[in-house]
Amino acid sequence: MRFPEYRARRLRKTETLRRLVRETILSVDDFIYPLFIVEGSKVRQPIAAMPGIFQLSPDEAAWEAKKAYSLGIPAVILFGIPSQKDASGFAAVKKDGIIQQALPYIKKTVPDLVVITDVCLCEYTTHGHCGIVHGDEIDNDETIAVLADIAVSQAKAGADIVAPSAMMDGQVAAIREALDDNDLIDTPIMAYCAKYASAFYAPFREAAQSAPQKGDRKAYQMDYANADEAMREITLDIEEGADIIMVKPALAYLDIIRRTKEEFDLPLAAYNVSGEYAMLKAAAASGYLDNDRAMMEMLTAIKRAGADIIITYFALEAAMLLDKSKNKGKSNG
Q: Which ranges of the chain have pLDDT less than 50?
């Protein structure tokens, strides 16, 4: 039997050779680390559905952010959980709101860290929906006015980037106009453009105490069967002023990430969501999967699909593994 002149296995023989020809390079520079912020002091409450992830008071969040930055992670994204909620989500706008409290702690502790804030109402409302509810309907236009106020409040408190996640029509335009009107023209918007109504959010809703008390979010988050619609949503957000675009979740939507990367030229974020994290942790705890190997394969796949930025609860673990690998390469050299 005659083999072809080219044998693909020649370039797979050793780890060093594989490194030499590797097409996709995962880096700590790719990561954003999510933090859940609660009121109080010295609070570090484990989240049962997400082993290794905690609800943190502002002081503890500042130390967690410092740890992330020491590992080379360039950014964190904050989700606030107030002690008091109401139907309007007013706590999200207050000057002394939980995110507004946490921002000065973090910026003082880690001045060079990029701090991103989630702009939504689900964590702040008693009903758990992402907007203002009248009867059984979300009032889109009333909601975007509130989202704009939240974004301005957070930016004034020190947010480097605001990230609207409510999936309301026109939210990016409303926020951009409000930021500009308040002399915050240099504050970028990272838009949750293609955010699908996904089962993979369940652990987050425990962590952020944001599960809808009635109904679901399918009237404003996207149908997971749709791809063309995602391109329309992304186009709208870009036209409204988005600086960074996002696809959420990541693993079940690698095709959407790839298509987005091919069709648009803005920085692209992908959110490796709580359910993706929790299912790997559960499989690893049961001995079904190797946590580290599966984690790195998962994150590399997201980047290979086209993501420039990966929001992930694995950020600290992955950063430590990448650092270990880099130091091993140096010692071998």
A: none
